[in-house]
Design a protein that fits this description.
Elements: H1 2-18, E1 26-30, H2 37-53, E2 57-61, H3 68-75, E3 83-88, H4 89-98, E4 110-126, H5 134-143, E5 149-152, H6 158-170, E6 175-178, H7 182-191, E7 196-200, H8 201-209, E8 213-218, E9 244-252, H9 257-271, H10 274-281, H11 293-314
Parallel strand pairs: 1-2, 1-3, 5-6, 5-7
Antiparallel strand pairs: 3-9, 4-7, 4-8, 4-9
Helix pairs in contact: 2-9, 4-11
């Protein structure tokens, strides 16, 4: 009887092991609250991934600690291909330098499956500021050290760190004013209570086109298709300035390579869908140029190095 039971258990285990993936529902962890751009991207992806895989894909919001709670949950999940998550510039490039003792390693604890979104930031100024281009802004900041304020949505955000990089590269001194989100920062920028900010392209675009703020440059190496006449900061004299807000799908470390490859293929097929592409473009996203999991991992490692140095030099601390 015991021999029979042992064989039955062994055969059941072998059958389960041989069962093709996916054989049950998947969950997709969004490490931020519902309604934000990362949550929107996750909910845009989930039903189409469900259709491609033939199994339900359920979005699970786990916000908190700047995205660290959701990222840590993903890192500690079983590497069986049934738990995925969204990893972003904050959780995988900035927070490791910003939060001491982070409970996960952004490289070792994850498989970087597919980069989904890359969004430029835009240097925008109040329309009353007498600076029509980057050179004039730098000259003004040098003539008025400490008298210009730049806003951001929070301490340690890409908007904050873009401002710190700008200060370092131009040798200027401006005062950082952190807000509880980008919306109140933009409101004060338009009212003239702060003079400039590095805003997310999707947020900035309507105000730029309406003439409520003046755009001086984008933060990426390439010009944006949304503002093709606007120069980059590098073209404006800041050689090597390249900052992009990004996020993509990740999985726990040791997730099987065939699963990662299948997910990567399906996700990029979904990103080619005209409706998906248009929804992401509405958020200011450019088409990702990094496509393989290996290139995504190398990109995350490079971003880690960049932001570790920038956080150190800026002295940024969590809110």
């Amino acid at each position: 009887m015991r021999v029979f039971l042992a064989w039955a258990i062994l055969l059941a285990a072998q059958s389960a092991f041989a069962q093709p993936w996916p054989a049950k529902p998947l969950r997709l962890i969004a490490p931020y609250a519902a309604g934000g751009p990362i949550d929107i991207s996750a909910r845009l992806l989930a039903p189409r991934l469900q259709e491609a895989l033939g199994q339900p894909v359920v979005v699970e919001n786990r916000p908190g600690a700047g995205g660290n709670i959701g990222a840590d949950l993903l890192a500690k999940s079983a590497p069986d291909g049934y738990t995925l998550g969204i990893g972003a510039i904050a959780t995988h490039a900035i927070n490791p330098a910003l939060y001491p003792g982070l409970p996960y390693d952004p490289i070792r604890d994850f498989r970087h499956v597919a980069l989904m979104v890359q969004v430029p930031n835009v240097l925008v100024v109040n329309t009353d500021l007498p600076a029509k281009n980057v050179a004039e802004l730098v000259a003004l900041a040098k003539a008025r050290p400490g008298q210009l304020d730049f806003a951001s949505g929070s301490t340690g955000s890409t908007g904050h760190l873009a401002g710190e990089m700008f200060k370092i590269m131009t040798g200027t001194f401006m005062v950082h004013i952190p807000y509880k989100g980008a919306a109140p920062a933009v409101t004060d920028l338009m009212a003239g209570r702060v003079q400039l900010m590095f805003d997310n392209l999707a947020s900035a675009l309507p105000n730029v086109r309406a003439g409520k703020v003046r755009a001086l440059a984008v933060t990426t190496k390439q010009r944006s298709a949304f503002l093709p006449d606007l120069p980059t900061l590098e073209e404006s004299g800041l050689k090597g300035f390249d900052m992009t807000t990004w996020w993509g799908v990740m999985a726990p470390a040791k997730t099987p390579q065939p699963v990662v490859e299948r997910l990567n293929s399906e996700i990029f097929r979904i990103l080619e869908n005209p409706e998906v592409r248009e929804r992401l473009r509405a958020m200011g996203s450019e088409t990702p140029t990094i496509r393989s999991p290996e290139a995504f991992t190398a990109f995350v490692a490079s971003e880690l190095t960049t932001y570790a140095e920038l956080v150190r030099r800026s002295g940024a601390k969590p809110d």
